[in-house]
TrEMBL record:
Taxonomic path: Bacteria, Pseudomonadati, Pseudomonadota, Alphaproteobacteria, Sphingomonadales
Listed name of the protein: Sorbosone dehydrogenase family protein
Organism, as annotated: Sphingomonas kyungheensis
InterPro entries: 6-blade_b-propeller_TolB-like, Beta-prop_PDH, Quinoprot_gluc/sorb_DH_b-prop
Domain (Pyrroloquinoline quinone-dependent pyranose dehydrogenase beta-propeller): residue spans on this chain: 72-285, 328-437
Transmembrane segments: none
Organism domain of life: Bacteria
Name of one Pfam family that matches: TrAA12
Length: 442
């Protein structure tokens, strides 16, 4: 009996040592980051991992008068400080700004996986409870600082996306789309939200984004997958990894596009009035794969998840395989690099910084937790050509950095990006609890 116990103890010790060694020497990028960006990124052989590389910047916050670092010719200052995990922004017609102070709902599941997830969330600055409210920020004197702050709406469930349509304010909770009557200039809404459609919640990727469609009668809602590669079965992914088109009058929806692991920021292109989005791609294929991306989305598009990435590269971990779908897997328009966690998207018709930022897309990159070295943790700009797609050979241009200090620790993490009423860039920093305002130098 003792011999069996000793053998078991030795086996457990070897496993423990293997885990420690793995975590101490995680998968390191082998390809220069720049090569995994652009219209034709370098797609290398996958390095499949049983355990993910864990490399996330520890949070230290902003100290004293520290601010992010803007690109040359731009300035930055705080539009609002002291918020509670500000995740998403929406500009109202009168110039007021709504901020969703929100976070993931309580996660089910304990054990080692739940414990590890809790550690990662805390390490990344995301382990705080959701405030579940919308706050209104008003810059009445136009000096670029919000001097008024009002609790606008409460009683929500991890809200993210917001949009006005036909006098109604629509809000995307993690498990539903709701609406309330809106009056321009109001500083508070007390009406009970009306349910429009239910959304499937739970699992990973809790944030639901939402914008009004150009037709003036429907909404686009981004719903991320509940898992990495459907490892819990496709039934758990029903109406997930999709952009849904919601019909508020009928209180119904349809799948507009699929195979998008986690579509977050969405915007309507000023060039052709088509829908664009940024997407977080899959994990555990190594530090060089797979690139997050920016892409135009049309009705019926399928971008490959979970079976394929980057327009047809098979993910051999997914079972059962679907080789019959390979030819239908649409290739994205532009790679942003692996694991940058692209979340925010705004075009240059809304954000008017001029010069080299006059034509293209601004993207908030929340930053990686599973790449060595880390990637993201900044706001970038993708230049577009006159025909309405990323310019040939264009690489992402840094707009706002400095979210990591000299020791690689996170002062903040950028999320959504929008334009204020003057065309300046507003950036929600959910770890720094600040909304930053970037403008042209005067």
């Amino acid at each position: 009996m003792l011999k069996h116990v000793l053998r078991l103890a030795a086996l457990l010790f070897v496993i423990a040592v293997a885990v420690v060694v793995y975590l101490a020497w995680p998968d390191t990028a082998q390809v220069p980051f720049d090569r995994v960006t652009g219209k034709r990124p370098q797609i290398t052989e996958a390095r499949v991992q049983t355990l993910p590389t864990v490399k996330v910047a520890d949070v230290v916050g902003w100290q004293g008068n520290e601010t992010p670092t803007p690109a040359a010719g731009l300035t930055v200052k705080a539009f609002a400080k002291g918020l509670d995990h500000p995740r998403w922004l929406y500009r109202l017609p009168n110039g007021d700004v709504l901020v969703a102070e929100t976070n993931s709902p309580p996660r089910k599941g304990g054990g080692i996986q739940g414990w590890v997830m809790g550690l990662l969330l805390g390490k990344a600055g995301a382990g705080v409870p959701s405030a579940n409210r919308l706050t209104l920020l008003r810059d009445a004197d136009g000096d670029g600082v919000a001097e008024q702050r009002h609790v606008f709406m409460t009683g929500l469930n991890s809200p993210t996306g917001m949009a006005l349509l036909d006098g109604q304010l629509y809000v995307a909770n993690t498990d539903s789309v709701v609406r309330v009557p809106y009056t321009d200039g109001a500083t508070q809404i007390t009406a009970k939200p009306e349910l429009i459609v239910k959304l499937n919640g739970g699992g990973n990727h809790w944030a639901r984004t939402l914008i009004a469609a150009p037709d003036g009668r429907t909404l686009y809602v981004g719903v991320g997958s509940s898992s990495n590669i459907a490892e819990n079965g496709l039934e758990a992914e029903k109406y997930r990894a999709n952009i849904l088109e919601v019909y508020p009058k009928e209180k119904t929806f349809r799948i507009y596009a699929s195979g998008l692991r986690n579509p977050q920021g969405m915007a309507i292109s000023p060039f052709n009035k088509q829908l664009w989005t940024v997407v977080n791609e899959r994990d555990m294929l190594g530090s060089d794969l797979a690139p997050d991306y920016l892409t135009q989305v049309e009705l019926g598009d399928q971008f490959g998840w979970p079976w394929f990435y980057w327009g047809g590269y098979p993910d051999t971990r997914v079972e059962p395989a679907r080789p019959d779908l390979q030819q239908y897997s649409k290739r994205p328009d532009y790679a942003l690099g692996p694991h940058v966690a692209a979340l925010g998207l705004a075009f240059s018709d809304e954000v008017r910084l001029g010069g080299r930022f006059a034509q293209g897309a601004f993207i908030g990159e929340h930053g990686s937790w599973n790449r060595k070295p880390v990637s993201g943790y900044k706001v970038v700009f993708v230049p577009f050509a006159a025909r309405g797609f990323p310019a040939e050979g264009a690489k992402p241009v840094d707009v706002l950095g400095g979210f990591l200090d000299g020791n690689g620790k996170a002062r903040g993490r950028p999320v959504v990006v929008i334009g204020d009423r003057s065309g300046a860039l507003l950036v929600a920093d959910d770890v720094g609890n600040t909304i930053w305002r970037v403008a042209g130098a005067r």
